[in-house]
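Folding problem:
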Amino acid sequence: MTTPRVPFPVDALPEPVADLVAEGAEAIGCDASYLALPKLVAVASAIGNSRTIFLSDTWQEPAVIWAASVGDSGTLKSPAHERALAPLRRRQADAFAVHDAAMQVHEGLLQVFEANRKAWQAKGRKAGEPPPETPQRPVCVRYLVSDTTIEALAQRLSENPRGLLIEADELAGWLRSFDKYRAGKGGDCAAWLSMHRAGAVTVDRKTGERPQLYIPRAAVSVCGGIQPGILRACIGREHAEDGLLARLLLSYPPRRQKQWRDATIHPATLVAIDSLFGRLLELNANTDKHGAWQPVALPLTPEAKRLWIVFYNEHAAELADLSGDLAACWSKLEGYAARLALICQLIHGPESEAIDEDAMQSGIALARWFGAEARRVYGLLAEDDDDRDRRQLVEWIEGHGGNVTAHELAHGPRAYRGNPTAAEAALAALVKAGYGKWETRPAGAGGGRPTRAFVLGTCGGTGTTTPESPESNGSSSTSASRNGHDPEAINRLLAGESDDDGMEF
């Protein structure tokens, strides 16, 4: 049985990202999380190795996020993904154009070099002249990559020390790249897990000018969409146990019926977002004696430190009561709260020199929401066929006002279409399970008989699939602010108990 879903806490995001998420979700007609997740990943990638958050002398967290928007085809994941990554896509297109122009110049320099080299071999070498210098091949600035092979990624990282963003409309290819080590080769998996903490990665190559590639700080963020069945197949027990699942921030909102919308994102919001990315990408880091990037570590203000200590201790107490996959998830959310605080601070002020109380509060609120969502999504991924059918029926009813007659259901989902007997039985089963009750609709103004309708006990688009007790058929609703941030609801979810903290696939 899955837990209720709390709407994504848009108001925990600083402006202008909060404005973009709220306006973009309204314009696209998607869940706010489908915009928020890739936008947070894009911001993290823009920060890259320029900054870390300093928690103690032995603990810093990088601006690295791995996130997956889970949903069936047609749930508007892709339009949200495109909108969130638009500032980086535009800059990547510009960088490719600059590189193409530089390569044309390079080709001309190579021709001159070849002529000079032949002249040197014919006369200059005997005269003791130094050989001509080989022109350096231009490096293309990269922000986004889609090739997920470790060797190709290491090459790109060696040329772009800030870090990179792996973006994929469908994350299945990236997830399946972890499977390459199953035949006894663990190098790829170890490299990926190191990149999540912006750790060092070494790649030995059989070909190429450099037989070894050493990346001292391989900061790689990841975002994309994936269908729930594919996620279930790609993760499996193996990747739940190796830590991949725990490193993924997930969102899996209930499916909603699409409606035409004339809403747009305000031009001022788009200008502000583009300016934010420009300022973030201008952030530089310190360098060590070898020229490698050394991020500037931002300390916590005293107020932020107090908040962090309270959260850390509360989170540790929660973790002590968990086991299995949720325990692994909670262990990563601890660091994610700090990473999200760093990101929120730099959204608010890219030139910030410390993490303040507001940023820490936002990071903690976001981490708590992701914990609540993980608890819910893990349950969804562990559903059997009957559970899944029941949940999908409840979500369909939610999307149609929270009440439905058997006749209406028989004209709705394909499973019940044209079969009012099956529709009646399905609604009766929901009543028996405590999901709602029967109510009588009075006859219309034109006469006719009263009709019996099934009414959900809790509705309103919150994605609730937890039934009420059969003894109480009253309705309840999720309390939320304008942007859907209800800390008390999140805390109730975090304190919720599960029959089984582990996932079975």
